[in-house]
Amino acid sequence: MLKSFFKLILYFSGFVVLGAVATLLILRLINFEKTVMVPSLAGKTISEATGLLKDRDLFLEIDREDYSDELPPGHIIKQDVKQGEKVKKYTNIRVFVSKGKTMITTPYFEGMDINDVKLSLKKLGMEIGKITRLHSDNVEKDRVITQRPLPGYFSGNKVNLVVSLGPYDVSYRCPQFVDMTVVEARKTANALGLKLIERKEGRVIVLQKPEAGAIINKGDSVEVTLGRGWGLWF
Prior knowledge:
The protein is an alpha/beta fold and 234 residues long. The protein has 3 domains: 38-101, 2-Layer Sandwich (Trypsin Inhibitor V, Chain A), CATH 3.30.10.20; 104-164, Trypsin Inhibitor V, Chain A; 171-232, Trypsin Inhibitor V, Chain A, CATH 3.30.10. The chain has 4 helices and 15 strands. The chain has a 3-stranded mixed β-sheet, with helices on one face. Strands 7-10-8 form a 3-stranded mixed β-sheet, covered by helices on one side. The protein has a 3-stranded mixed β-sheet with strand order 12-15-13, with helices on one face.
């Protein structure tokens, strides 16, 4: 009788252990079935990502919005749980969403020297896009004639510039300044685009360099010496 009793206890203990193991396996299987694999959301729109997560009984949570030069507004930049990781169903997957390219108010560069513009853009984290060079009678060489985007407009990080090559080269023979009054000489030089360098004092030009008839270019300097003039000796 005693042996039968011990056998009964042994069998009962075995059934308990087997039952516990089976229960543990069933619970693990149930928990396993409650986990899902997280899909890749990067580059997807909010609508697309929401649909992908909904199919897996997951939820989308927007953590914050940030600027992106690669992705248009409303597209997901990154997610907090990596692609392929397993999480429990009904988990919130947090994402960062693009606000589009960084919007910068374009500074005023017109009239500035191109080298100063480059330094200014570098400090702002911006770049020169395309440079077009044109001749101009009004804007000095290497200075900005115009820009795109225009000053004050919002843009990305590049600015296109039109830069002056200075005036076209114009050659002609130097006029006769000797015997002109200083007022007449100034008017003549201004009309021809010459720079008049005046030496000494007086009302009449008595000497000039280069001489009358010499080949000069628009923008060149002509040195003149002022004096009383022949007509003022009397």
